Amino acid sequence: MKNYTLWTALITPMRMDGSIHFEDLIRLAERQNEAGVGILLAGSTGEGLALTDDEKKQVIDAVTELNLSVPVMAGVGGFNLHKQKEWISYCNKRNVDAFLLVTPLYAKPGVKGQAAWFRNLLDTAQKPCMLYNIPSRTGVKMAPEVLESLAGHKMFWALKEASGSVSEFKTFRKTAPGLPLFSGDDALMPDFAIEDGKGLVSVASNIWPEATKLYVSKCLFGNTESLFPEWPNAIRALFSASNPIPVKWLLKEKGLISESVVRLPLSEDDLEKTEHLREADQQIKQWYKTNKN
Question: Which residue of 12, 63, 230, 254 sits 20 to 30 Å from the alpha carbon of 27, by its own alpha carbon?
């Protein structure tokens, strides 16, 4: 997985009745495969917590049975340890290549609780694990001491940092200098790359996998002049309502999925304007055409 600097936090496409649209899911996964981009399933962008346990299993099975050439990562999020370990054990038996382990939700554990939580999950996993810090969704910030506590665990592979803070990223880098750090925020990829970030777990690559791959490459090699203003504008558009509402709308607009349905508590009605999404799509398409050679 060292060769994969970009992972797409894949959406979970749904039908009008709210059931999973597996034909669309397979098409989306194959599109990422063609672009050479790693795939994250059942993350927050994939509405993983809104899926039933059986649905998550079906999503994993549908994609891993395709025998894609790119790696597949499974999201692990919640605050019931037994259920998360059961989920990891299920994925261990499938063609899952890695796990994304989210800081426990809602409970707001301290340093020792966080470390023990992650250690239990790492001990259960049989594949490399990326820890995930996203306090805006979990209600608690990952303590840097957790990385020190878990250093050396054979399944601890990387960290996805999505606190929205470059200073937090620097703290993690100082605490764990040899650990690969990935941005969990499309907009901050240029800033994180300057601080030795190794890649991106992206929402934008749902729409533009090839262009986002080039965006990441330019960030990692310090060639960021051409990114402005197209990429900041596009990323703002994709987060103009709660993720994944805008990205699903644009995927449907482009004919890549059949419906833009999201599950409650998300609502499509929260996306009040859409013209900025069309404009963003045109801007990124033109940017990629100009910069790909």
Answer: 230
Contact 52, 20 (CB under 8 A): no
The helix/strand count (H/E) of the chain reads as 12, 8
What burial letters (b/e) apply to 22-48, b meaning 16+ CB within 10 Å? bebbeebbebbbebebbbbbbbbbbbb
Angle (CA) 32-241-37 rounded to 5° is 10
160 has catalytic annotation: yes
Question: What percent of the chain shows pLDDT beyond 90?
Answer: 91
Nearest alpha-carbon partner for 172 in 127, 140, 131, 122 = 131
State the Cα–Cα distance between residues 254 and 208, nearest whole angstrom.
11
Place of tokens 């966080």: 114
Span 134-164, pLDDT tens digits: 888 888 889 999 999 999 999 999 999 998 8
Catalytic residue among 56, 160, 198, 218: 160
Q: What topology does CATH give the domain 6-220?
A: TIM Barrel (3.20.20)
Q: Which helix (H) or strand (E) holds 211?
A: helix 209-220
**Is 219 within 8 Å of 190 (Cβ atoms)?**
yes
pLDDT in tens, 110-128: 999 999 999 999 999 999 9
Nearest to 156 by CA among 117, 185, 118: 118
Look up 132 and say whether it is catalytic. yes
For 239-288, the pLDDT digits (tens) are: 999 999 999 999 999 999 999 999 999 999 999 999 999 999 999 999 99
